[in-house]
UniProtKB/TrEMBL annotation:
Keywords: Coiled coil, Endonuclease, Hydrolase, Nuclease. It comes from Parageobacillus thermantarcticus. One of its GO terms (molecular function) is hydrolase activity. This is TIGR00255 family protein. Belongs to the YicC/YloC family. InterPro entries: YicC-like_C, YicC-like_N, YicC/YloC-like.
Amino acid sequence: MVYSMTGFGRSTKKNEQLSITVEMKSVNHRFCEISVRIPRQWVAFEDKIKKVILQHVKRGKVEVFVNIEGDGLVKRKLHIDWDLMKEYYHSLQRANEQFSLRDQVTLSHLFQLEGVTEIVEEETENEELEQLLLAAVKEAAEQLAFMRKQEGETLLADIQTQLSSIEKSVQVIEKQAPFVIEYYRERLTKRIHELSPLPADESRILTEVAIFAEKSDINEELKRIRSHLQQVVATLEKDEPIGRKLDFLVQELNREANTIGAKANDSLIAMQVVEIKSALEKIKEQVQNIE
């Protein structure tokens, strides 16, 4: 099963007091990274949100945006620092005595002094909030996973098309490879006859052909390409994160194609190698977005 790392999900859950909206989007990333943006007073839910998302996402960078609205979510309380107020009061009284002042110290003066009062916000205990929030996260994550699956199916179809193209090129190379040595022998014999009127030394020609055959042998590379292609097909059918393994296999296929191109002294094979490398480049682009 192929999943893309790109997707989007959104969910809104409501009750009589609350309205919670969760949006999440994911993009390519080497690992699984989840960042949650949630109102400060509800940060305690961040780990639970991530656990829900991890049930649907194994790789990619996921950004989560949480908006919580409702009545009575936060209680505002007045906090008075009585000790500090006493310090202010005694200091002002001493100042009056020190400078022979007659100013009266009033409560209104004291309450205006820095640090004496503070408005403290406390979150209310709402048992339904957590359930509503996690339900919204779950639904948004399911939408995200569904979109990633849909895009993954598109990626899979394109990869399969490119694999078919590679298969055709490999078949052409396999058919052409046995004739490369014979063509080389014919060219070598013809060249010798052009350069010298004397009869060609057949044993020397056979030696040169044998050396060429050893250097240009691509049977092992073709076997490895076949093996790698089979592994790619098998990997695409697995129900687990496969992006990294596919990336490795594409690199190996590209390496074998380069070796064939370097060893096989044949224009037709060289053309097929170009076709293989072109298809592999397209697969590589798609693999970068696979979970």
